[in-house]
Amino acid sequence: MKPVNDFARKQHKYMPTFAKATGKPTVYIPGYPYEDEEPMPATGFHGEQNSILYEQISSYFATQPHIYVGIDNFIYYREGDATKSVAPDIYVVLGAAKFPLRRSFYTWAEGATPTVVFEFLSDSTADEDREEKVHIYLRDMGVQEYFLHQPEMEKPAEFRGWRREPSGTIVEILPDTRGALFSESLNLSFRWTDQHHSHVRLLRPYLPDGTPITTAIEERNLHAAAKKRMEAAELRVEAERDLRAEAEARAAEETDRRQALERELEQLRRQLENR
User: Fold this and answer.
1) Number of other residues whose CB lies within 10 A of the CB of residue 71
2) What's the CA gap between 197 and 192, in Å, rounded?
3) Per-residue pLDDT tens for 68-107?
4) How many CB atoms lie within 10 A of CB 25?
5) 46 by DSSP, 3-state: which?
6) Distance (Å, rounded) from C-alpha 117 to C-alpha 93?
7) What is the pTM of this model?
8) Which residue of 68, 149, 201, 249 shows the fewest CB atoms closer than 10 Å?
9) Would you say 135 and 128 are in contact if contact means Cβ atoms under 8 Å apart?
């Protein structure tokens, strides 16, 4: 379909460029736990936001073998020190092999650091997300961009982002007129929309020209709607074909009747002439 082909063309145009990681994919290194003994305080709002954004980003970069997208697992960023770890909601590593999947991500083994990190605010970690993690991610780890977002509609909207400049300076990313923040690393724009049926303030990615990246459900709905339009068009074509066939049959009948009348008229003329 034309819209799909058009999106694929835009996707190729806007895909970021990056260098491959210098290490190798590492599923697990003994001595670095990959599970947290404490239960995660995530809510349904966070669960929906996490799963949808992870699905969208993973789907968008699905054809890129060296873009790894992680969700809610440990990142160890200092070899030999298991306390130097974080577990962001979602992160993207440009240059790291997509497969195999990892239990944790070890920056020194991979030869790569997460490029972009997303955190979704919760009551238990909000202050840490707003303050301490800005420095951990951007300064200690070397992450390029960090975004945080409040997914609960009942709470005040909060969507912020920071970027580490080549000089090492950390600057806050300014929103555009629609409230969107642009990720230079991913070449994608992010802004939220209220999902009133679920009360989730959903953060979503867009191409630089404003084209939304659809969810799997939206994609299925688009395909279903396109299929219905195609079926309706086929029915219209078939109906028009039947009407045309009927019209041609009527025209043929009219031609036969006219020719019969002409023959009858010619016969009557001859009879009159012979009298």
Assistant:
1) 17
2) 15
3) 999 999 999 999 999 999 999 999 999 999 999 999 999 9
4) 17
5) helix
6) 9
7) 0.79
8) 249
9) no
Count of domains forming the chain: 2
Which are the contacts of 111, defined by CB distance < 8 A and separation ≥ 6? 21, 22, 23, 24
The secondary structure of residue 15, as a DSSP letter, is -
* Side-chain-side CA neighbours of residue 42 (13 Å): 16
- Does residue 234 share a domain with residue 116? no
Note down the domain range covering 251: 215-275
Q: What share of the chain is helix, strand, coil (3-state, %, to 5)?
A: 40, 20, 40
Q: Can you give the pLDDT at residue 220?
A: 65
Structure tokens at 27: 């599923």
CA separation for the pair 202, 37 (Å, rounded): 29
Tokens of residue 172, six digits: 């806050």
Same domain assignment for residues 56 and 173:
yes
| Residue where a domain terminates, one of 214, 238, 262 | 214
Q: Which of 121, 119, 117, 156 is nearest to 43 (CA)?
A: 121
Collect all residues with Cβ–Cβ distance below 8 Å to 40 and sequence separation of at least 6. 72
> What's the pLDDT tens digit per position in 123-155?
888 889 999 999 999 999 999 999 999 999 999
